[in-house]
Design goal:
about 550 residues; alpha/beta; Rossmann fold; 6-stranded antiparallel β-sheet; 6-stranded mixed β-sheet; about 20% strand; elongated; DNA repair protein RecN
Length: about 550
Amino acid sequence: MLKRLHIQNYAIIDELEIAFSAKLNIITGETGAGKSILMGALSLILGDRADPSVLLNKDKKCVVEGTFATEGRKVIKQFLREHDLDAEEELVIRREIAANGKSRAFVNDTPVNLEQLRQLSNVLVDLHRQFDTLELGESLFQREVIDAMAGNADQLQQYKTVFQHWHHTKQELEELLQQKNQFTKEFDYNKFLFDELQEAGLRENELEEAEANLRLLSNAEGIKNTLNKVSFELSEGEQPMVQQLKALCHQLQSFSEFHTAIPVILQRLQSAQIEIQDIADEIEGLNDKVNFDPQQLEQLNERISTGYKLLKKHGVKTTNELLEIRDQLDNKLQAVLNIDEAILSKEKAAAQLQGEAVALASKLTAQRQKQVKPLQDTVNKLLSQVGMPNARLQVDIQPYANLQDHGADNIEFLFDANKSNRFEPIRKVASGGELSRLMLCIKSLVAQSLDLATLIFDEIDTGISGEAAKQVGIIMKDLAKKRQVISITHQPQIAGKADAHYFVYKEIRGEQIKTNIRELSREERITAIAQMLSGEKPTAAALENAREMVMN
């Protein structure tokens, strides 16, 4: 419940604080006194967007702070735990608006964003304004009413989980089918490309090696002639280099004892002789291996020609890239063969989930249908109580062609205001006053089924008076037995039912007009209600009538 509301520097409110009762709180005041301003300030801590124009003093920030008693409610503790917020017996929600328009929100002094604030406010407060009656004609609200009365929260969550899983599985199945269709379209072409590469039978680096061999064979004759010439000059010429070096070594050998540098030079010459002899032997071996082979040359040309066509076709430069493309094509061909198995598995999973969703939807439908007659009977009785004896509500539940994320039911509230037996959708036929009273009747039922601590009504009594207003007050009083109710009203019959009565008024401070609020004593309440009945100077009869309202 909302224990305290503190407002500072908002619109024409300088600073005020209200301590609310745990039961029925009524707020009254002259038109324009600032009752709607109070609701605007309250809306800030419930997550509404901030407007810097509401700052009374542009040099100071606006602060709105609400203190709520959590009363051990599990849904609030769960929210605080999920968002790493301190869980205490009192919940302090603060909203600050700076002069530059920047807004900050806090829960127990921990910063939160607006979305978190809205989610929290949904479990703390149900705020009903005059224009909120429009939601009564919306399918979502109507379905939520039925589900709340049926206690479908857990079953609905279970259904939504299965439905979302089923929907996701169907999407995956559709993607697989599209993939198969694409695979099938490309299969023949991919198989042709794969067979072509497979038939080529290329091995790693083959084309690069073939090019090197081709260059060798193409120049074999020149290479062989040169090798013969070099080998001859080194070992077999008129003056072979090896023999010359050997003779030079003999000549130096005889003088090696006479000069210390000669043995070193001699050793180097001997090493050169050995190295040149080794080179000569290697050239001779190499020469034996170099042979011009026209048949091999033709084969290499054909192989390279085939390889170049494939390189150009696939836009690559190396043999290994071609082999990688071949492997990728092979994987695609294998995927075509494997995808049928994946599709079959996904179809089975989708069918199973659909069966579960249908079964859960059927249970939801049965639970909803059980609530139709009790809802109709109770609301129609309440409608008579609030001055609409000829009005009737009828709930129509029709199946959708396909399952929806909320089940299989299209729920429509139909309304007949004059016992004409011509029921039409509420959004088409109900007037503003009828919608307000109908909304109150429905919310009085739904409140019994929801874990909602505080109900706030902002002039829900618009368009009614007399006995109807009295009955609205009785319904609110009954609601307030189990939860906190806060209502702004112009009706004395409703004000007379208050457990705590607050009066909003304007006062002049210096040269400025400010809005303030105070809780009325019993005698002040009697006077205020009498003024609501007969004017600023109430008659004795009005005072007596007001006293009777308050005392009863």
